[in-house]
Amino acid sequence: MNSKGYFGDELREGSIILTLDELSTKEIPDSLWNNEELEELTIQKTRANMQWSTRSPLSWYETVEFTPPYRELSDKVGKLKRLKSLILVDLDIKTLPESITQLKHLEILNLSFNKLELPEELSKLKVLKSLKHLILIGNHYDPHEMEEYQKEFPNLRIEYKAEEN
């Protein structure tokens, strides 16, 4: 694939934006997981547009009881060995596959507005030594656990709640 995503978006070489609503089967094509040169992957429900959108306050996401449907990220994500940026926002993902630990070059991971229970999922991310920026806004978290995780990884920028003024 050259500098265009699956749907014609202008991208840098080695980048793909996959929009689930534009796939006829709503399934991620197996060919995606075989792209060994891929460095940046964004999977989104709908195409981003230039209009303003609104969301519930972040405090709502932190306390709401998550209900199905849930999506699963394929265990094949671990095949993307050169991946540096993985953006999976608002996909209803409840758990991360164990293979995410194989993404040794991953620097940016954005899992915002999914249905993750962070204490359980953070242990999978501890082996990602190249990770520089972790974005977890809009998921369930324990403030004490997040503080401890930040202490354990002081060079990792973690965003998980609204900035306090």
TrEMBL record:
This is Leucine-rich repeat domain-containing protein. It comes from the Bacteria. Keywords: Leucine-rich repeat, Repeat. It comes from Roseivirga misakiensis. PANTHER family: PTHR48051, RAS SUPPRESSOR PROTEIN 1 (PTHR48051:SF1). InterPro entries: Leu-rich_rpt (IPR001611), LRR_dom_sf (IPR032675), LRR_domain-containing (IPR050216). One of its GO terms (cellular component) is cytoplasm.
